[in-house]
Specification:
The chain is an alpha+beta fold. The chain contains 9 helices and 7 strands. The protein has helices spanning about 10-30, 35-50, 55-70, 80-100, 110, 115-125, 135-140, 145-155, 160-175; strands at about 1-5, 180-185, 190, 200-205, 210-215, 220-230, 240-250.
């Protein structure tokens, strides 16, 4: 199965972007090659831009506090495992505490590093970080992989509280609803929202289908078009029925 997630709010859109970038950094960080560590650093710069959104930290703190109250209200529910509830509440408390203790603007330490900012500025130029452009960066890339990895981990540290909070909030969002199996007749599916509120949609379909979902949604209706995924041609709606799983995720 392939899963596609579609955010229905700007807040969730930002969280998904942050998650994707952080996973990319962790992947390249674990590799030993200098080119891979360059890719990791470029992703750190992208994280810096996403995390610098003025309301991100406050949004996460508010959401964690709201989820704490919601979860606490489940203590009397016999269908809820007390051990699982205590586990997620502990993670919510820990994430909230770490985020609250993170003072100042997120990533300001990186912005105060003139050397890093000179590299960041050059990365926006195609081929702008060649060795003749930034000899000091070329020197850093020639250091042993452990030294580079240590530096990258230090530059990532300011984002750790945000990362932990994002992990918790997205976990709660993804586990908030049950999936429904549906069929898009000749590649098209429409559903009236009828007052349904969601912050994210998740669509899962078999890898055997050679198509991808194109989603448009508002407070009135959800429309899904499954289009061809051959890559070389202009996408067009497939002419076969497509079975898929749909989940409305809402905190």
């Amino acid at each position: 199965m392939i899963s596609y997630e579609y955010p229905l709010s700007e807040r969730v859109r930002t969280l998904l972007r942050f998650e994707d970038l952080y996973e990319r950094v962790e992947y390249f960080l674990a590799k030993p090659d200098a080119h891979e560590h360059h890719a990791a650093l470029v992703s750190v710069f992208e994280i810096l831009e996403v995390a610098s959104r003025a309301d991100l930290k406050s949004d996460l703190l508010q959401e964690l506090e709201r989820q704490k109250h919601v979860l606490e209200s489940l203590r009397e529910n016999p269908d809820v495992s007390e051990a699982a509830l205590n586990d997620i509440l502990a993670r919510v408390d820990q994430s909230s505490s770490q985020l609250f203790q993170a003072s100042g603007k997120v990533g300001q330490e990186l912005r105060d590093n003139d050397w890093l900012m000179s590299i960041k500025q050059r990365t926006s130029i195609p081929g702008g970080v060649c060795e003749f452009d930034l000899p000091s960066y070329h020197f850093w890339l020639q250091q042993n992989s452990e030294q580079r990895r240590h530096d990258l981990q230090q530059w990532l540290m300011p984002f750790t509280p945000i990362r932990e909070a994002v992990v918790v909030v997205l976990r709660l969002l993804r586990e908030s609803s049950k999936s429904t199996t549906l069929v898009a007749r000749q590649g098209l599916y429409q559903q009236m929202m009828a007052g349904r509120v969601a912050q994210m949609l998740r669509i899962r379909l078999s890898r055997n289908y050679q198509c991808v979902p194109e989603i448009s949604a508002n407070k009135y209706a959800l429309n899904i078009r499954f289009t061809s995924a051959d890559g070389g041609q202009r996408p067009k709606v497939v002419d076969t029925d497509v079975e898929f799983e749909l989940t409305f995720c809402n905190l």
